[in-house]
Amino acid sequence: MPGGNKEAWPHLKPIFQAIAAKAPDGAACCDWVGEGGAGHFVKMVHNGIEYGDMQLISEVYHVFRNGVGLTNDEQGDIFAQWNKGVLDSFLIEISTDILRYKDTDGEPLLEKIRDAAGQKGTGKWTAIAALDYGMPVTLIGEAVFARCLSSIKDERVRASKILAGPSNSTYTGDKAQLIKAFEQAMYASKIISYAQGFMLMRETSEQFKWNLNYGSIALMWRGGCIIRSAFLGDIKSAFDNNKDLESLLFDPFFQKATANAQVGWRNAISTATLIGIPVPALSTALSFYDGYRTARLPANMLQAQRDYFGAHTYELEATPGTYIHTNWTGRGGNVSASNYDV
């Protein structure tokens, strides 16, 4: 994902593309990204999406193990099957291998690993950038916080002994149906994560005049990348169809994909919630989707509250761009605070 001086790229392109990983169609997974620090930023977003994908897989594993009672080998078989369909990806592939791997005593090595995740910072940087530029990259943020929660292992052990959960923590319904629901939930949530990542890149590209080629970025991620997955080609097609695409969710392919997955998506998350197993990344993906498709959110209440306690003003639907302060109690003044964005 090289960035920098555009005039230097033709001189370096033959070298970089010769040594780069190749996609299934033989294309080199390396191309010029944009001016300045565009390459570093795109790589950071790639790693943030990686955090999200890993968390989604971990949540499904958690539900299947603790809530459904599936063995690691059974889960490995499920993941292997998923890897032949829309979820085909490097991370599903290696998770299959991890689930099936046995220690020297014949027991799954995975179950001996301490559940306290480390991190090098790129997911956190992506979340910070999202906050800085006002983009709702919620899934990557939740993936980072999930690692933070995992790291307070001793505190969680103490909490597990005193905090109540649901009386029934085991799924008793149709296992095959639930497995299918989680496949749909994983796929839809993955779409949301990538859509959010591209939203962040779009915003920064506009601010820094990087003129990012989003379709080319998706192609670069098809090989040699941890987030390598089958549907990156669908992302490339979406931007080929509309280079000014505002959101992946506006593309007909991804509209249909999320719509078709919706019932299973909702059932998977509600099931996990009812049996008390946390699915923060899956949940925030659905919440984002529902918020994004809502024409009128309750931010009017937030604006009224801000004006009530801090005279921060608000806009009326009829006159956007005009800021008003109301003396809500009859006891305050009519002077508004300095207007600011949050």
Please provide a written account of the structure:
This protein is an all-alpha fold and 342 residues long. It has a single domain, classed as N-(1-d-carboxylethyl)-l-norvaline Dehydrogenase, domain 2 (Orthogonal Bundle). The chain is built from 13 helices and 2 strands. It has helices at 9-19, 38-68, 72-82, 90-100, 122-132, 138-151, 153-160, 175-208, 214-220, 232-241, 252-274, 280-292, 299-310, and strands at residues 314-316, 319-324. Strands 1-2 form a two-stranded antiparallel ribbon. A hairpin with a 2-residue loop joins strand 1 and strand 2 (319-324). Helix 2 (38-68) crosses helix 5, helix 6 (138-151) runs antiparallel to helix 12 and helix 9 (214-220) runs antiparallel to helix 10 (232-241). The longest helix has 34 residues, at 175-208. The radius of gyration is 23 Å and the shape is globular. The two termini are 32 Å apart. 35% of the residues are buried. The mean pLDDT is 94.
How are the SSEs ordered, and which strands pair?
Layout: H1 9-19, H2 38-68, H3 72-82, H4 90-100, H5 122-132, H6 138-151, H7 153-160, H8 175-208, H9 214-220, H10 232-241, H11 252-274, H12 280-292, H13 299-310, E1 314-316, E2 319-324
Antiparallel strand pairs: 1-2
Helix pairs in contact: 2-5, 2-6, 2-8, 3-4, 5-6, 6-12, 8-11, 8-12, 9-10
Protein name: Phosphogluconate dehydrogenase (Decarboxylating) gnd1
Organism: Kickxella alabastrina
Can you summarize this structure?
This is Phosphogluconate dehydrogenase (Decarboxylating) gnd1. It contains 13 helices and two strands; from the N terminus they run H-H-H-H-H-H-H-H-H-H-H-H-H-E-E.
